[in-house]
## 1
Amino acid sequence: MENLVSMKDLSVEQITAILEQAKAFREGATSSLKNKYTMSNLFFEPSTRTKMSFEVAERKLGLTVIPFESGFSSTLKGETLYDTVKVLEAIGIDALVVRHEQNNFFEELVGKTKVAIINGGDGTGNHPTQSLLDIFTIWEEFGTVENKTITIVGDIAHSRVAKSNADALSRLGAKVQFVCPPEWQGEFNCVHDFDEVIESSDVVMLLRVQHERHEVSGIFSKEDYHQTYGLTVERERKMKDGAIIMHPAPFNRDVEIASELVECDRSRIFKQMENGVYVRMAITEMILKGRE
Ligand code: CP
């Protein structure tokens, strides 16, 4: 694997190899990449989890990490993403994690630069590393993803997480279903009554309401959304024994999820973030080893 821009890049066998390697890293395995490669993380949209956990992952692998701040870069003078990447290639960067507001930004890079490209999120398109850490979290919890019922709830149309997970989880044999308001269902078939599916779900995966991507705002008040599509305390009580709550975060407390459920026994929200480091170590190592 030379790049990771979409979950479609990965076979089931490659996904499984990443899960196994992430588990090995969590159990203390070390990498042979120490001091061999230089990476940088180019984030043109805000991020806390993806940017910081990639940086931790790169440092744990022993890589050299060169800081990049988009707000102080020559992109503000009009330099394009392509030209920025060519600059970084010229000065010796081996791999880049890139988050950009433009869907499919990677199409102008892959095959045109020697730098490996890892997609840290493209607009409303893909978020493959989030999908892999979500899959890892489910796999660790249940020992398998196959035959698990995963209910993804919320702003499906604007969610790159929903799109990456829908593809990958289905290929791994999970039953994936969506709950959302009709206005936010995009290309997906969605159930509009959360209460119809809450009791049968092994995983309830909540999504952030992405106000910044809405052309029409104010369809719901926060309270209305919470009562209709949020995980309220009453709905959590209907979840079956052993079922878990996930959210890629950042979460809006008392909108997608009742504030008191964020750290409840069923919640794996912070576990997802912890797992993200090991999964991103495994992805980065797989890509860089592919260059050797
Ligand atoms: N889940 C996620 O992508 O979070 P950040 O936007 O903070 O990276």
Note: Residues 47-50, 121, 130, 248-250 surround phosphoric acid mono(formamide)ester (CB under 6 Å).
## 2
Amino acid sequence: MTFADLGLSPELLKAVDDAGYTEPTAIQAEAIPAVLMMKDLIGIAQTGTGKTASFVLPMIDVMAAGRRRALMPRSLILEPTRELAAQVAENFEKYGKNHDLKMALLIGGVQMGDQLKALDEGVDVLIATPGRLMDLFERGKILLSGCELLVIDEADRMLDMGFIPDIEFICDKLPETRQTMLFSATMPPPIEKLAKKFLSNPKRIETTRAASTNKDITAFKVPVKARQKRDTLKWLLQNDQVETAIIFANRKTTVRDLNKQLQRDGFRSGEIHGDMDQSSRLKELDRFKSGDVNILVASDVAARGLDIKGVSHVFNFDTPWHPDDYVHRIGRTGRAGAKGRAFTFVADEDAEAIANVEKLTGNKIAVFGKDDVRVELADPSAKASEDEQSDGKKPRNRRKERPDDAEGEAKEKTKKGRSQRKPKPDEATQRNAQSKSRSRRRDEDDEPTAPGEWNGPKPGFLDIGFG
Ligand code: AMP
């Protein structure tokens, strides 16, 4: 299946090609033809599935015909947060570069002057957060009666944030004859109700790739004592081949403290949470996207849905209180086919939350165990025997031995090591035979370890929860 099969215009196909996409994702393949046929749509999909392009691309072609009028946007996209709105706007610019369409972004926390000016001149696509839109509507600065197309994105998050009454108000102000699309990662009853009320005979598309079962994400839970979370995080940041990481915490104060601590420890980290003003949030995000910092400590509200390329790791410093957030958090990695690792710290106080996560996803998350560690751990018995040798040299820390230029190879080895893990019995026998005739890796020499059981050498603080 190619984008050309979906009925998009040549101008769009060129923009898609320039974006480097060769094949539509599952949701795009289903949604694009339906939207082009002016059907209403319910998309049950998370970010990371290509859902933004699944509505932005056909919208551009649908909007290509028709005229702009002052104060009357022709289409409206509602987003729960400013960051998501800004991200969808970026998508519009990227895919709509060969079209003459005007777009305006209405979000809180930024100067209103330019937004009002754009509205005055007439816009084809208005991307807004409900709060700012309501504000302008109530002040008579915007008319919604010319809006033929509505997208409600991240509806379940809108629900969490208390936006449903605003959305109902806005829907009531739109013309009855219009096309409506609703996207949501989950469909709790209030969202079903909203869909029933405001969509007519919608096509329902559900993407199979839930973040919890995304094969590109390797997820672990790490049992720890609350007071050991920081050390555990630090150890993993240093030893799990972290390229870029987002660390989620449940409280804003934890986000702030953790970031300070990481900076003190010499990490390049930044923070993003709901208490920051818009420009600082965007600035911090830009620092992360540009690689100025490679670690972002974040709260859920600020980070939901962010599309940042190449995030290698997600850490849940706390298990999220809402199980849906777990799915969203770990979905920040393993995006668009890239591999990612997600670690969730589970202290006593997180026990109930993790049980809820596992209930929601229908999946027991693997306990991070010895076989999952990416570096070789210093072996006390080896150390002792090296000490006994009388060459007078200090015993070396084995995990620091890897030369920098061997990193790629080391990763390859680790990957192989990991893909060989938990072999089926016949494979295990075969491997044992093979391992006799070649240089043996330390982890292959060991007895199999039950998940969560840690019977080898380990950094001291990892004793807890693995012992
Ligand atoms: P989304 O689910 O909309 O947040 O998109 C996730 C990521 O996938 C974004 O970085 C998109 O640029 C990218 N993407 C969207 N569609 C495709 C596609 N057909 N092929 C490759 N990447 C895509």
Note: The chain has 19 helices and 14 strands.
